[in-house]
Amino acid sequence: MNGLEGRVGIITGANGGLGRFITEAFLEAGARVVGVSRSIQAGDFQHPGFTALPAELSAGEAAREVACEVMTRFGRIDVLVHAMGGFAGGQTVAETDDATLDRMLDLNYRSAFFIARAVLPHMRRRGGGRILAVASRQAVEPGAMVGVYSASKAALVALIRTIALENKDCNVSANTVLPGTMDTPANRAADPQADPSQWVQPAQVAALLVHLASDAGAQVTGAAIPIYGSQV
C-alpha cells in the first residue's frame, strides 16, 4: 500500500517544473491522476494511472467543465493539487503595469479560485476531500521588486485557509505549502550564477503533498507549511 490507492486527484500545472514531480509522486503513491494544463498530453507520463485533460483555467466555466469531466470518467474527486502558477519580478509597485498585475492574479489566484470552487460541491457531496495549493515563501515574507507576485500568492494562502474553515463540517481539508526557491529548470535558467544546492528540491515538496493527501495527513487543515531547506 502506497497511501493513495483508489484516490482520484486533479493536478493543475501537472507538466510544469514542479508539477512533474508532484504528478510522478502521486502516481507512485497509487493515485489516479488527471493532469490539467493548456499543453498537457497523454504521452507526458508513461503510467497507466495518468489521464491528460488539456484545459485553460482562466474562467469559471472552464474549471466547472474540468470537474464535470473528471466526475463523468471516474465518479469521484478526492484530491485537488493546484500547482499551476507563474512569477513576475524586477519592478517596484509604482512601476508595475496592469498587464503584469492581471497575469499574476490569473495564474496564482483566479485559476485556484475557479478550480477549487468547481470541485468543492463534489467533495462535499462525497463527505470528504483534500485541496492543496502551492503558494510561496514570499506569500508570507514579501520582498522588494516582487510586489504583485507576493500579493497574488498571499491571496492564494488566504483563499485556501478560508476553504478549510468553510468545509471542516464535511471532512474537506485545505492546506498550502510555501516553498523557498526551488531547483527547477526555469529557476536555474533565470539565475545561472546561483548555487542550486541551496535551493529546495521539488521532490521534497511533492512528498509533503502526498502526505497531506493521505490518511496520515487527515487532521492537517488550514495550514500554510514552510519548505525552506537551507534557506531558513
Outline the structure in words.
- The protein is an alpha/beta fold.
- The radius of gyration is 17 Å and the shape is globular.
- The mean pLDDT is 96.
- The protein has a single domain, classed as NAD(P)-binding Rossmann-like Domain (Rossmann fold).
- 40% of the residues lie in helices and 16% in strands.
- It has six helices and seven strands; from the N terminus they run βαββαβαβαβααβ.
Please describe the biggest sheet, giving its number of strands, its sense, and whether it closes into a barrel.
7 strands, parallel
What is the CATH architecture term? 3-Layer(aba) Sandwich
Find the CATH superfamily. Answer: NAD(P)-binding Rossmann-like Domain
First and last CA, distance: 34 Å
Keywords:
232 residues, alpha/beta, Rossmann fold, seven-stranded parallel β-sheet, 7 strands, 40% helix, globular
Quick structural summary:
The protein is α/β, with parallel strands linked by helices and 232 residues long. It has 6 helices and 7 strands.
Write the layout of secondary structure elements.
Elements: E1 8-12, H1 19-28, E2 32-37, E3 50-54, H2 60-74, E4 79-82, H3 98-126, E5 129-134, H4 147-166, E6 172-179, H5 185-190, H6 202-213, E7 224-227
Parallel strand pairs: 1-2, 1-4, 2-3, 4-5, 5-6, 6-7
